[in-house]
Design brief:
218 residues, mainly beta, Immunoglobulin-like, OB fold (Dihydrolipoamide Acetyltransferase, E2P), 5-stranded mixed β-barrel, 1 helix, 15 strands
């Protein structure tokens, strides 16, 4: 019963996160210019911090590296002032992925800010964006079900959850601590069930990212 209550509370938290506008928490917004879609985000390169971005599923959208916007006047280009960056997002095929924006210093392990954004591409290649507050989940793999390509995982807050992985994605090992990325939807079952879009190992000194295969053909 306690696990069921924990699952229901987690779902309520996710629902509230979706219902609220998360923009004030993160320095990003979506803009359209010249028929293109961009994520606009603010950073300060004078501090040594940079933005990085990558899709969890690599064949849904194409994203460019964050590019600074040229300032029109000398006053706007003051040394040490925040800089506006643009990240172009191009739809490739219908589906959904998560764009993970991380603000960090390349020579440090700590991440100053992480912004996961759920991106959906419809049948007409239209793009839809949703902030994912409270994502990802940190879990421990307690049972591996290789034939079903799923695992049973748990943490102290939500209890146990079944995680289904794409067939072409490697599975974690039993006892491994992982961060799981999914679209924020958990099926109301016992235990709850989620469909994994991507995952990474939580282990020092550096997390190992496991993604769906990315087609790098030009």
């Amino acid at each position: 019963m306690k696990k069921l209550i924990a699952i229901l509370m987690s779902l309520m938290m996710l629902t509230c996160a979706f219902a609220e506008d998360a923009q004030p928490s993160y320095p990003w917004e979506i803009i359209e210019e010249d028929g293109k879609t961009f994520i606009k985000i603010t950073g300060n390169p004078s501090t040594g911090y940079i933005w990085t971005v990558f899709p969890i599923v690599g064949d849904i959208v194409n994203v460019t590296d964050p590019t600074p916007v040229e300032k029109e006047t000398a006053d706007e280009a003051l040394e040490g002032a925040p800089v506006e960056y643009r990240i172009e997002v191009e739809a490739l095929t219908p589906g959904e992925t998560i764009l993970v924006l991380r603000y960090l210093r390349p020579w440090e392990m700590d991440i100053a800010m992480e912004c996961p954004i759920l991106v959906n591409v419809d049948e007409n290649n239209a793009l839809f964006f949703m902030p994912l507050d409270g994502m990802p989940w940190n879990l421990t793999a307690v049972e591996i079900m290789a034939e079903e390509h799923m695992i049973l995982a748990e943490n102290e807050t939500i209890g146990q959850v079944l995680c289904t992985f794409p067939e072409d994605m490697p599975l974690p090992t039993e006892g491994e601590n992982i961060r799981v990325w999914f679209n924020g939807v958990m099926a109301l079952s016992l235990p709850g069930r989620i469909n994994v879009l991507g995952w990474e190992t939580v282990a020092p000194p550096q997390a190992r990212m496991m993604e769906a295969p990315v087609d790098e053909t030009p």
